[in-house]
Batch of 3 targets.
Target 1
Amino acid sequence: MFAAGEGCLEMASLVADGDDDQEQGRRSAANAAMDRYADGDDSAFGALYDELGPRLYRFVLRQTRNPNAAEDIVQQTMMQIHCARDRFRRGADVLPWAFAIARRLHIDVVRRRKHQELLTDDGESHISARAPVTDAPDEMLYGKQLEAAVIAALARVPESQRVAFMLVRVEGLSVIEAAEVIGISVSAMKVRAHRAYEAMREALGESEEQRVP
Amino acid sequence: MMHPPDSLKARILEAAKKNPVPARKSRVPMSLALAAAAVLAMLAVLDFFGGPHHADGRPTTYGSAAVGCTMVVAALASFTVLPRRRSMLPRSRAHLLSVAIGVPLLVGLCTMLWHPLYDDPFERLGVRCFAMVMLTAPWPFIALSYARDRIDPVSARLSGAAMGAASGAWAAVMVALWCPLAEPGHVLRAHVLPVVVLSLAGAVLGTRLFGLRRI
């Protein structure tokens, strides 16, 4: 039997429990596109964007909660990748690198804008966790409540844990890759991701308990 | 809306088209050429200071041990800062920090370890040793930087610091070949301190060399 919070996490689809083969296929496509682009095939940049852009956007949007800022950071990330095409190591994995660039750019933006203007609530309404699709009104209502609970719970988790959680559980990076993205040891990444997971589970457990009388 | 607008892709493709970047070329030949040039430049500096005969007053066994130990430290440090296969990202901050801090200490230890086993042939403040490290280190730094050349979005400053320390370690190999002294005061002043300075200089350079570029 699921703990209440665990059930919420499953329903909110925040935990990357998708098909590993599909993820591997997407990743291979991104790596192949990057290698083609680095080798001089200009048309591969569009394919690379198709593989990376939406994932980067989702990742950054969850950090900034501001669609305009997220677009700007994704554009800068893709341009950094473009400018480094001649130095891209053959056979290297482009996804962790792209996430690391996006994260650095986000940190730089936050540092530049003191008082973390990007973390204000003006973009919150644009965020949507992938709530379960259903026609039942009570399920839809619950989905919306859950969505709000997920967003609120994510916002309460410290930034370092939130990023760890999103990279590992949402974006499907391995713990080793996520550790590389943040620049910490694998064991430290495991601790961060676990703490974030526990915090999310606790927060969403409360939400589940409120629903069930 | 968790999907980017379609216009974003068009904007990015347009921006990339306006700023063309050449395709990838193999960097191995140039990296090897720079590594060879760095070795020659370091040997030239050693020769400029009088060559390894300056260390004749030191027992050969201890001299070889000091040089060998320092070479191992330099090789390990270089291995840590050089790019890994299948990854565009550096090692963890803890790894890089341990190189930046640990290499100067290990370099000193490799020389001081033998101090109780033989008498130093003379005493020196260490100005020439210091100068020798500072003149020798830039060459391996250039070679390592070229081989490492890629943006480091995670820890550019620490990568630079570790690279400075690794370069300092290679310079310390030359100094270990040249300098017969193992007295701790001299070693700390003239062999360890310059590697610390190089590590700090590398941290400053690292941001410029490996940090994200303004586009």
Note: The domain at 17-125 of chain A is CATH 1.10.1740.10 (Rna Polymerase Sigma Factor; Chain: A).
Target 2
Amino acid sequence: MNSTSILPGKHIVFTDFDGTEGILVDLNTKKYYQLNETAMLVWKGLEQGKTVDEIVGQVTTEYEISLDHAKRSVEKLLGNFQSYKLVTSE
Amino acid sequence: MIHSETAFTNDYGPQRLTIELVNICNLHCSYCFRAEDALYNSKPEFLSVPVLRKVLSDAKRVAGTTRVIFTGGEPTLHPEFETVLSAVAESGMKSSFVTNGWHFERVWPAIAAHRDSVTHVAFSLDGITREENDRWRGGGSFDRLVRAFARCHFSSLPFAIKVVVRRDNSDQLEQIAIFAARMGANALHFVHTMPTSAEIDNTSLALDERRLVEEEVAVLSRIFKMNVAIDVGYYNIDAQPPCSPLAGTSMNIDYRGRLSLCCNLSGFRNGTDETDVVADLNVEPFVEAHQKMQDLSLAQHQKRINRLATMQAEGVTPDLFTGSPCLFCLHSFTKVPWHNSTDTEEPGIRSLPVFNSIH
């Protein structure tokens, strides 16, 4: 997962709810997805073009968790984004 | 409850004011019925908050008004938008507004601060994809609308979507309804294109085509859980008042503080007369202005009843500019001076579609 670049889908509209919660709208399926604080951090990282490692690093900076824990959480989130076709891999 | 202006029942909704907060708009939709000069070529004008406060107080006392619907131009461009919402809340009334959604994120804190008095928001939409919508409204408009829908949906603020029916989207009403439902809209209100020029008049849907649209809307209103209705330009030849202005339950105040019959007549693009304006509330007492409005509303309804009765006696089915209350008023208030309303339809045209309750 780290070797490929993951980007938000162009068909996704993101709304930031005061930095603590976010909403994704998939314009293809017309479905809403609700993001919690961690998922927001990951999504914003993808929007900023960060690598997975950089996002994992940011998670460990913002939350008091181990690198392994952060990596597992981020990869799980990215897997969810991919399974719902919310992101594209390059 | 989101109220439609359509009145195919005897329920015209609460006593309400439509109030044009501003004359200007940040988008440039070619079919808009507000005068081009006011929207784009004049200096920005905003309804003053002191006038608004006085109007709210007087309307509540004299007319029993309980609801205010803000329009424009684009109402969120009012520099004191939050104070405007506060004024309504302090009056004990409820408010809603019609917006293109462009500035929704900016005004959201003001809306959230007045959540108890803001009943809903109505968003104008032109298509269910970026391409379809932004072709009419400009790049970036669709994404901003979708963000606004998300904001409302997840904040439990009811919202309506308003769509102008044109020749290019008249066969997509069901897809539009599915989109609105998926976005969580509480209401979907269609609007017929208004005849703002001879060219638009001639290229818009003809009466038979409009009736097909209205029948489809009636079908959709039965299928969908959200309120689906047609707000403007519909055909209705019943004897009862066809809309809230002619029933005396709604009035319009323009951005200059003048009282007029209906928001759809006010500042009409290419109109040549303003006989629908009864008073300048900057100088005239509301109680007198309100009486003039009641007289005008009754007289206008009677005028249309007489016209319909004459046509019925002659065995003629009313044409679009008589059968549609909106177009009848546009014509009789000289808003469409290029139009010669002598055309009639052959008898035997299909009957009025029956709408469900629209609250």
Note: Chain A has a mean pLDDT of 93.
Target 3
Amino acid sequence: MSRASTVALRLSNITKRFGPVLANDRVSLEVAQGEVLALLGENGAGKTTLMNIVFGHYTADEGRIEVFGAPLPFGQPRSALARGLGMVHQHFTLAENMTVLDNLLLGTRPLFALRSGRAAGRKRVLSLAEEYGLRIDPDMPVAALSVGERQRVEILKALYREARILILDEPTAVLTPQEAEGLFATLRRAVKRGLSIIFISHKLNEVMAIADRVVVLRQGRVAGALAISQTNPAELAAMMVGNDVPVPVVQKTREGDVALRLRDVETSGQRPDLRGLSLELVAGRITGLAGVSGNGQAALAALIAGLAVPCSGRIEIAGREIRDWSPAAAIAQGIARIPEDRHHAGTIGDFTLTENAVLERIREPRFSRSGWIDWHAARAHARTLIAGYDIRCPGPDARIRLLSGGNMQKLILGRVLEEAPAVILANQPVRGLDIGALRFVQEKLLAARRRGAAILLISEDLEEIMALSDVIHVISKGRLSPGFARGTMRSTDLGLWMAGRGFDDAA
Amino acid sequence: MSEIVEILASASLWIAMVRIASPLIFATLGELICERAGVLNLGIEGIMVAGAFSGWLAAYAGMGLWPAVAVACLTGMGFGLLHAGLTVLFGLSQHVVGIGITLLATSSSYFAYRVALPEVASPPKIEAFQNWPVPVLSQITLIGPAFFDQTPMTYLAFGLAGLVSWLLARTPLGLALRAVGENPAAVDAQGLSVAWLRSGAVIAGSGLMAMGGAFLTLSAFNSFFFGMVNGRGWICIALVVFGAWRPGKALAGALLFAGFDALQIRLQQTTLGADLPYQIFLMLPYLLSILALVLSSRRASVPAALMRPFRKGER
């Protein structure tokens, strides 16, 4: 750490407003050479905005950036790149139909050069990949790569351009635990070679594992800057959310009748299809669905939401068989859904909060009369949700695209729960959320359970499933395991089912 | 049957094919460049009219033929600049802007023609490009007269197809152009300007479209008259899809369409043509093109960001 005295990047009093929202409020921080700085904060705390300012995607309203002592002009990604800044965005910026090598070479040679320099480029990519342990085939089209591999390409892109300061925005959000380990190994190698790393995250254990120092942002301001050796997760969590984090308390409830029952349903055209699946969702119970992603969760969720119809088997709601199954029928039957992908299936980005809040209910008499929308009532409803679900936003007329993921999810949650639904399909409800929003969503789900809703919780996070669910099923290749009551299974037992073990015995 | 064999064996069919294909090649390459960069340029039909008119006018006013081609090209680039300004800078609908430019370029060309020549009844002729037979090669049977005994603009069209193909596949500029049509955010993140790349592609592509128009007046019909472009621009839009956004395949597509077109005229004069209404033959190249399009475009990879305007800093 002898080099730690050189300041690689210094931000002084960065302020950025989006309309009435103050995204960054006089933020100052420093990163030394050969250091990992974690930028910790809830969603919407201003982490990504700050880094987009550094990288020139946004222009700050006030403040100053210095790279290795020299000022960096605002709003010019090109000069940021030239000065050795490299950013790995949360949403990758890769051209999918082009090869890895093409993506890496893009913009690295003078535009009007007569040769692409492909051969030399390939050599350099391979040696960099070797040096940093980023295994990749340069001739694969990006579309064929897994998310983890795409991230490696993004990191290679920065390394190829000789980045000295690497900014990673929520890099582990999309990775499996094994891939995350690989990423950390790569980052450690990079630091040894004198690179500086800014690691944006809201996951405390990762920050504790990888960072040397941490800067906590809360509501656009610096809430604290500490050395990792002198802090602990509890302190950081408190700093992030501004108060102590309560652990969800799961009280016993009285379970009611079966709200939704699937009997031997099979689907076709989904990947993978459901195979003879039977499931009961009981009022006042959270049923957890564990499993490795891509084992039929999507098909089951589509089926329950009315987006898919079974090709055999039956769907019963409150004991009666349902024949005409569609999203509208599902909504009419009191099935509420929190979709997996809040950006695409949950909201319409260019619509306002108000429009998104009433979208599913627009034909009901409270929001429209003889075909005319009652905007007054709709806006009032949106205001109720904003207040009741702590949605941080400029107001009911703001486009929902401008909200952070957590606030978007709170709107979806409010939209669902305000209708007191009989069945709630919660598909990855807390994915990508920070602690504050995560606890909020979990508490609201538990409250709905107390009220008597039948909840299906789909998650890839086994700890979450085990903490919240009364009954756990495991899904594997479209088949469903028996239900395991709370506390009867250890995570390793569930892991075996997730790997498809028990199913073969049963068959 | 023997009549058809006779037609296929005649050099005149193949000569006509290459001649008919030439303007399509220019304009198809122009459209292809625009679309690879992510911009659908529906101004093509009008820009071809403007190119045909401005090239002819320059030659009629006494300029040399090559300077006249340059004038046509610059005129097209002017309309391209307008298109780029509206679609790339302001992010307006590419459909509306394109059709608007087609209407504007067509009607302003006709208007200028009437202003320049208020009194003529039959369109005045100009001294057009003459054939340049390539020594030796033009002596080969069928292929020789078809490909090596044409006007220099035809050679230019084929040369440009090779150039565009090389540019897109082999140079950093081509890489950047392809990338901006696939994912502009990737280009932006690598420090290149999406606006400049897309505008440049639209302007250059529009220049090529206008040269395709100028081929009609300077190398084929020797004069300018209303309706002479006659939907060729729209054919080129289809040819880009047919060619799966690749210059080589698009060139083959242009030749195929032109071949059918040359064939149908000749079929009209056969005994078959005496029995069937001639409109059936006129339909032939279009029907076959649609068929070929259906068969070939199923696997085509559309530029992922085609028709998607890029706004910096949006999620």
Note: Residues 256-334+421-507 of chain A form a domain with the Rossmann fold fold (CATH 3.40.50.300).
